[in-house]
Every structure is written in structure tokens, then in C-alpha cells.
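In full, the data:

***
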Amino acid sequence: MNKRILSVFVFCAFYYSAQAQEGKGGISDAMLQQIKQTYQGTPADKAIRNAIGSNDIRKLALDQDNMKGMDVHFSIKVPSKGITDQKSSGRCWLFTGLNVMRAKAITKYNLGPFEFSQTYPFFFDQLEKANLFLQGIIDTSDKPMNDKIVEWLFNHPLSDGGTFTGVADIVSKYGLVPKEAMPETNSSENTSRMASLITLKLREQGLQLRDMVAKGTKSTALKKAKTEMLGTVYRMLVLNLGVPPTEFTWTQYNSKGEAVETVVYTPLSFLKKYGDENLIGNYVMLMNDPSREYYKCYEIDYDRHRYDGTNWKYVNLPIEDIKEMAIASLKDSTMMYFSCDVGKCLNSDRGLLDVKNYDYDSLMGTTFNMSKKQRIQTFSSGSSHAMTLMAVDLGENEKPIKWMVENSWGVSSGYQGHLIMTDEWFNEYMFRLVVETKYVTPKALEVLKQKPVLLPAWDPMFAGEE
């Protein structure tokens, strides 16, 4: 075949391939040319490209018109009891839940500087999650590996993230200890390496359990094997986090630094005195998810931290209903567990969450107009971080202007360890609020009585706070 004929064949093959590609939804040469023509390469475009090439987009998009002095006055404020620091871990849900109880304990007993140990409940959280995974593998062992729930289990055998569900599940079973009784370790403050090793081991153990079931292993033998596997996980946790105390001596100091009493406690007796024994019954989780029907009760499968725990029930409400209960709690000097999409529109230097912080529209020459409902439906937004709601500033007709949370990123982060959010930001990126039952409206309590709609484990709202 001569070169001329060969070139004709090559051209024809390329031409028909391009036509077929365009017909199937691909980008043809003609389409690519049309796409390219949308970029005009104006001097302004070149200037923006040069700027973005050597700068953080957020700095370039920072709206200077919104950089005026930040108002830090709040008409209703529960005094902070000290800023905590979760370091490089996803334990915000745990820090927040414990900080809510800590604030009450400090006020009730006039305590000096005080923290509950975060490492102690985290130890049992990881052990219980390991059991939740292994038992889940046994329960689904009759399903193929590509079954949706089996895939989900192997994708999520362990996590240091969570929700208030985990605080209730773990603390109610294992109790609490002061920070001195089980302090932080490098692995508790930097969880990724420990978590990756335990996760790897759990996946291996999960495959072993499935193989045992396939070979007809009896349930008693499976239980024994699972117990031995959890023993391996327990040892790994001890090596990384320490041995959880079963009894300890602790001296209570008042706000003047004076010793009040020295008592021998167990974790459960310490919980009884300084914490809340009925975390499940005393609190209601409110949710604002406009992608689902309001005034409905929902629960998510596997949304618990113990196999024998309880999937937490969510009462889905309009945002204004949730604000009403939040304000009632703050007026009574009671902080709350609060979760949101903290990474959206955050100016970390100022500690300000404001939808007007960044003008990406002007920088990129386009608009970003999805509603909260659409962002949830497309996985563009969801609850990512938990903090302690502690203040609100009310304007005319008792309408909120702004809110403040106590964060767990250290005292040098944000505004003196806190974040301030505008009410508009609250509307767009607030997702969950845990409120004591006594502040919940009768209408919301009636919704809680409904048989909850069960959502699958992979539902967007399952993602735990970190």
C-alpha cells in the first residue's frame, strides 16, 4: 500500500472517529474550537491569570468591601470556659460534646480550669467502631462483595469523625474521666497513622470473617474469632493511646485554685457527678436539610458508634424553627452542640464566616448560584465540623444578626479561638443543632414521635463532623 493511499485511510479513520466521538457525547475538534473561542484572552484575563498563577485564589477573591471592622458584641452570650485544641485529628464532635458538659460542670461546681479527657472516650469509640464494622461484615456475609452495603462497610471500617450520636453512645456506656487521668498522646492528637494501620487490619479481618462464613463456620466460632480480632485492635489502641483507667483519684479545685475534695472515682461515677447520664433522653438533634420534607423524622442506618447503640433520630425543620430553640437555650445560659460546613466562606484570619467574604464571581467571571438544597443534592455541601454554639446578637424584633461558636482549634485560631458567623451564613451552612429537650418546641417534639424514615448509610447527611 503506497503512502498516499495510507494517508487517505488514516484521514478517513480519524474523520469518522471524530464524528462518532461527537455523536456519543465526546469533544470533537469542531466542538473544541468552539470551546476555545469562549476565552478571549483580554488584558484583564491575562492580569487575572498572572495573579492566580502565583497567589492563593482566596486572597485574590477576598472582598475588600467586607473588611470593615468586625462587631464582636453579642446581646446574649454564654461565657466560654476555655478553648480546647483537637490538633490534627477529626475529633471535633467529641470535643464539642464534652465541652457542652464541661461548661455545665464548671458553672455548677465553680471549678477552676477543667477538661474532660478526650482520649478516654476516643479509645472506646475506636474499639466500638471496630466491632460495629466486624459485626456488620458478619451480618452481610451472605451478600456479594460488590453489594452496596458491603462496599460501604469496607470503605468505612473506622473513622475518627462522628456526630453527637457518638458522644451519647460512648459516654453513656463507658463514662468520663478528667484529662489528668488519661491525657493526650501523639497518636490521639495526630490520628491518621494509627487509623490507617487499624483500618488496614480491620479490612483484613473482615475478609477472614467472610471466608469463615463461606466455609460454614458456626456462629459461636465466629464470635470467638471476632473477639480475638478485637483483642488485636485493643492492643493497638493501648500502644497508641494508653490504658483506659477503671478507677482513679481526683482532686476538685475551685475557681480560686483551692482544693475542695479528693475522691476515688470510676469513670461511671465521675460521669454521674460531673457529666450527663442521660445523653440520649435529654437531647434532640435538629436538622436543616431543605432537600427533604420538613417536619419529618429521619434516621440513618449505621449512624451510631456502637453496634448495640441507637441510630440517632433527626428532626428536620425549617431554619427559623431551629433558631427559635437555639435562642431559647442561649437565653438560659446553655451552650449547644452545633455542626456546619465550616470550610465555606471562612476568613480564618478574622474568624469570620460570612457569605460576602469572597467574591469568586468577579474573579472567575461567572456565578455560583446553587441553593442550599441543590448543594446538598450534588454533594457540594454538608456537615463537616462541630463546634459549641455560645452566643447570638439579636436586633429588632428579636431577629438574629450574628452568632458565635467556641471552636476546638486552639486559642490562636480565628477570633481568640472562636468563630463569628453572620445570620445569612447560618442560614446557608448550618446543618445540625443538638438541643436539650426542655428547649424543644411542642411541635418539634411531636415530629420526634413519628416512625422515622430510614435512610441508607451512604446518605449525604451521614458524613460525620471532623
